[in-house]
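R.M. (postdoc): so does anyone remember the format we settled on? I'll just put the structure tokens first.
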């Protein structure tokens, strides 16, 4: 099926999702099942690979989120719901509500369930870190056994230990892990052995980041896996998280995956995202697509690569903007669930027909005027201010749901907003439409505002974007 058809399906899907989001009556019917054959899920299955995503439990009830999750992915992992602080917040008291949502979603949608994560120095309830060594060892064993037992037969693979190695470039163990500090190097083998005792069949994985290329950290992981295989410590796979900066997928990524596979373990890309400086432009999105393609081509070239999981589903809910100020747009679906060039690149890497290049030279289009105009009117006093932002849709199409972004340049801080949800991360300010003003017809305007504080100078932002497109300002 041509990619136009698939893109048509994806566009249909995006329109449906947008309509769903806005509750409009003009919902477009989803493409028929025949188009399911062009979903990433079906394309990846044909190659014997999993295509996964990290599920945020509080989002799965949103129709738009659910529709893409159901359609495009064959594997699901809990972004946070299976972490220690979620399942055992109090010693010996387990809470399965959130983790069961993910496990039940996998069951009802016929997806593989990937377990993340049993032992990690982060997302730990405070009671763990205060334990003396002998009790920490007992608590670790009990935690692993209880969680693995609960999901025995449902989880395909567990991240038994996550991020055990240091970032300091010398291949040493992570110094800020309470498990490393109190239990020493042996805690890794203990964790894997305990997990194997709890479930004889589940795959046991070691997961880490910044090990995608050949470097001191990946060499340390390699040597540990080699020693585990030599001494009979049960290990079945290595997870390469794949949190990439745009354009920085290592040239030796495939060779690195292959050398681990040659040790006799499976390899997985477990948390793929490619972060982009915001606002992302067309060239950056094209580079991101090339990065996604490269990751999948490497996985497809290594027999024991089981698949690729992205760390999230839509840019709207990615962890990146909160953790990397000014960065985002890291996933295959944008903030309105529309497939991005990265989606098409993955589909084509998985065998979908490439988008046909136009045979007749297309006339160079005269650039349309910017799709939007913005006026920004501040009202300042000694260290406070309010500002009204008025956005006009100068494009030919109705905007269904808008996100306006701009950056402060003199240290201002937003303290509250109206007519929009206004948030700030570093210097970046994001305003998302309210439930009542998300539709902007061509020529239509919407205004929103916010209160803020400043340190004496209150320079106005100069670059505004509407859904990623730069607006005329002034
Ligand atoms: O749910 C609570 C909410 O009730 C509370 O009001 C709020 C206050 O800050 O915190 C919320 O929990 C947050 C949780 O995400 C759910 O949103 C935690 O503070 C926050 O620390 C947590 O961040 C997660 C992070 O791991 C730490 O667990 C990110 O969403 C998640 O994407 C990130 O994922 C990790 C992988 O597990 C391991 N590899 C790296 C990757 C990125 O850091």
């Amino acid at each position: 099926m041509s990619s136009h058809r698939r893109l048509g399906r994806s566009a249909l899907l995006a329109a449906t999702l947008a309509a769903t989001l806005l509750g409009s009556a003009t919902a477009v019917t989803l493409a028929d099942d025949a188009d399911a054959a062009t979903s990433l899920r079906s394309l990846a299955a044909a190659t014997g690979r999993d295509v996964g995503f990290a599920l945020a439990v509080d989002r799965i009830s949103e129709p738009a989120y659910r529709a893409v999750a159901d359609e495009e992915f064959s594997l699901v992992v809990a972004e946070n719901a299976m972490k220690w602080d979620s399942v055992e917040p109090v010693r010996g008291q387990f809470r399965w509500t959130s983790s069961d949502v993910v496990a039940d979603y996998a069951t009802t949608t016929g997806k593989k369930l990937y377990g993340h994560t049993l032992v990690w120095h982060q997302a730990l309830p405070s009671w763990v870190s205060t334990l003396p060594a002998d009790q920490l060892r007992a608590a670790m064993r009990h935690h692993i056994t209880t969680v693995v037992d609960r999901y025995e037969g449902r989880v395909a693979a567990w991240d038994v230990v996550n991020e055990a190695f240091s970032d300091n470039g010398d291949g040493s163990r992570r110094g800020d892990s309470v498990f490393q500090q109190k239990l020493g190097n042996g805690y890794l083998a203990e964790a894997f052995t305990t997990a194997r005792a709890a479930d004889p069949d589940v795959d046991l994985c070691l997961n880490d980041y910044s090990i995608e290329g050949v470097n001191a950290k990946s060499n340390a992981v390699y040597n540990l896996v080699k020693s585990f295989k030599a001494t009979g410590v049960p290990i079945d796979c290595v997870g390469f998280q794949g949190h990439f900066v745009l354009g920085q997928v290592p040239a030796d990524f495939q060779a690195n995956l292959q050398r681990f596979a040659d040790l006799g373990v499976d390899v997985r890309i477990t948390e793929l995202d490619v972060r982009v400086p915001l606002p992302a432009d067309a060239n950056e999105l094209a580079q991101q697509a090339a990065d996604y393609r490269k990751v999948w081509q490497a996985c497809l070239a290594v027999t024991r690569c089981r698949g690729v999981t992205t760390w999230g589903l839509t840019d709207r809910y990615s962890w990146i903007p909160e953790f990397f100020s000014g960065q985002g747009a890291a996933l295959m679906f944008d903030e309105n669930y529309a497939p991005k060039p990265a989606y098409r690149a993955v589909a084509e890497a998985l065998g979908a027909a490439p988008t046909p290049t136009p045979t007749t030279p297309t006339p160079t289009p005269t650039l349309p005027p910017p799709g939007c105009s913005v006026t920004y009117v501040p009202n300042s006093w000694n260290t406070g201010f309010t500002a009204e932002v008025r956005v006009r849709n100068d494009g030919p199409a109705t905007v269904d749901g808008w996100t306006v972004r701009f950056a402060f340049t003199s240290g201002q801080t937003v303290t509250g907003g109206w007519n929009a949800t206004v948030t700030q991360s570093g210097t970046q300010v994001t305003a998302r439409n309210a439930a009542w003003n998300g539709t902007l017809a061509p020529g239509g305007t919407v205004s929103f505002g916010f209160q803020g504080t400043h340190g004496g100078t209150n320079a106005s932002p100069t670059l505004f974007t509407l859904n990623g497109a730069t607006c005329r300002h002034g």
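R.M.: ...and that's the designed sequence above, right after the tokens. Also worth knowing: Residues 1-34 have pLDDT under 50 and may be disordered. The pocket of G3I is lined by residues 79-80, 83, 122-123, 162, 241, 271, 319 (CB under 6 Å).
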